[in-house]
Specification:
Elements (H helix, E strand, L loop, with lengths): L4 H10 L21 E9 L2 E6 L7 E7 L13 E6 L9 E6 L5 E4 L9 E5 L3 E7 L7 H14 L2 E7 L7 H8 L4 E4 L9 E5 L5 E5 H11 L3 E6 L5 H14 L18 E4 L8 E4 L13 H7 L4 H4 L16 H7 L4 H14 L4 H9 L2
Parallel strand pairs: 3-5, 8-9, 8-13, 9-10, 13-15
Antiparallel strand pairs: 1-2, 1-4, 2-3, 4-5, 6-7, 11-12, 14-15
Helix pairs in contact: 2-6, 2-9
Bound molecules: guanosine-5'-triphosphate and zinc ion.
């Protein structure tokens, strides 16, 4: 029997997201054929800012409210969403966000290692930029390792960025990561007379960053969507400003919030200056670490790529924890093959496995 239009309307209103996925089946949403697809750049108190017709003359920012049928599905920066209603972007207009498009990646975290509640951080990012300072604040392998695990689990490439190399030589610390297949950028300030990039940090203090590392970073970010995380004070906003400052200064749509400083706790996507279309960086205030309650233990090991070949020598079912009597990782250390770096890497790995909870708590407590 053919449905009449009224039935369709009714069916659409009652449509519930498919349990198997966040996206309703195609036949449940014929009413949204005219929807426009936009990229979410920030979320603030139930209002979603999306960029529409990106990189065209019609490019505009649209503010949207979520439709009820999205239920509690989180919408995050980086998401592509379907918008209906008033999508003009004119002042005081509000579009309706009716659908989240399929995501290529989803970066999630739990608040801590035992909390199974998932928090979605960002969607569709290609790269996770982990920012730590060489000193002030002290760099911590725990933070980096957790971030690498979270990235690995989400299918996102990690990139390590060490700042403040002018304060302390980061190479001894970087020993832990130099042998891995992970890109590393070392940033520093330069003196007043040298060529550098003036980048005012959020606290108003100005750091003149050496140009070469910033340019190297810009190249790593080209044509990708990256998300940047780091503790307070590491120089994250100084770097982000160096990469996106011109866009803000020229009043381009990247100055989306209309605020001098991005004070909300929500992540914010910014377009990178002097980079190809589609190069975005998502700044994440407030994300200081990643609980790993949602991560498969197998993926914790996989994120320690240097330990995988050794762990492959273990008997089937070995958990690789310190209590395992015959873990090949212990033999590797005992034989001297691991070296000091190997010992540190095994300790880092086992900390994340939850072996040494007291140390882990101390470490988390001090960040
Ligand atoms: N010596 C030195 N100082 C730097 C460098 N990068 C940033 N700073 C300074 O470090 C301080 C903190 O930088 P921010 O960019 O505000 O740090 P943040 O990580 O964004 O910190 P929050 O805003 O608290 O999240 C500022 O005074 C910067 O000028 C660097 O490479 N070397
Ligand atoms: Zn083992």
């Amino acid at each position: 029997m053919a449905r009449n239009t009224e039935d369709w309307e009714d069916f659409t209103v009652r449509a519930r997201p498919n349990k198997k996925g966040t996206r309703p089946r195609t036949k449940d949403r014929p009413a949204y054929e005219d929807a426009l697809i936009g990229r979410i750049i920030t979320v603030d108190r139930g209002r979603y800012r999306a960029i529409l017709d990106e990189d065209s003359a019609q490019e505009r920012i649209v503010i949207a409210a979520r439709a009820r049928e999205l239920r509690r599905n989180p919408v995050v920066p980086g998401d592509f969403v379907a918008l209906v209603g008033d999508t003009s972007g004119d002042p005081d207009t509000l579009a309706r966000l009716v659908r989240i498009e399929n995501r290529s990646t989803l970066l999630r975290r739990s608040a801590d290692d035992t909390d199974p509640v998932e928090r979605v951080v960002v969607a569709n990012v290609d790269q996770l930029v982990i920012v730590v300072a060489a000193a002030n604040p002290e760099p911590r392998t725990g933070f980096i390792d957790r971030a690498i695990v979270a990235a690995f689990d989400a299918g996102i490439s990690p990139l390590l960025c060490i700042t403040k190399a002018d304060v302390r030589d980061p190479e001894p610390f970087l020993e832990n990561y130099r042998h891995l297949d992970i890109d590393i950028v070392v940033s520093r300030t330069t003196d007043e007379t040298a060529t550098g990039i003036d980048a005012r940090s959020a606290d108003g203090l100005s750091a003149r960053l050496a140009g070469t590392p910033v340019e190297a970073l810009r190249e790593h970010l080209a044509s990708k969507v990256s998300v940047v995380i780091g503790h307070s004070g590491v120089g994250k906003s100084t770097l982000v400003n160096a990469l996106t400052g011109a866009q803000r200064a020229t009043g381009n749509v990247n100055a989306v919030t209309g605020r001098g400083r991005h004070t909300s706790s929500s992540a914010l996507a910014l377009r990178i200056d002097d980079a190809p279309a589609g190069s975005w960086i998502i700044d994440t205030p407030g994300i200081r670490s990643f609980g790993l309650a949602l991560v498969d233990p197998e993926n914790i090991l996989n994120a320690f790529a240097d330990l995988v070949p050794v762990a492959n020598r273990c008997a089937r079912g070995c958990t690789h924890k310190a209590a395992e009597p015959k873990c090949a990782l212990d033999a590797w250390v005992a034989s001297g093959e691991a070296g000091t770096v190997g010992i540190a890497r095994l300790e880092s790995y086992r900390r994340l496995l939850g072996q040494d909870e007291e140390t882990e708590t101390k470490e988390l407590g001090s960040i």
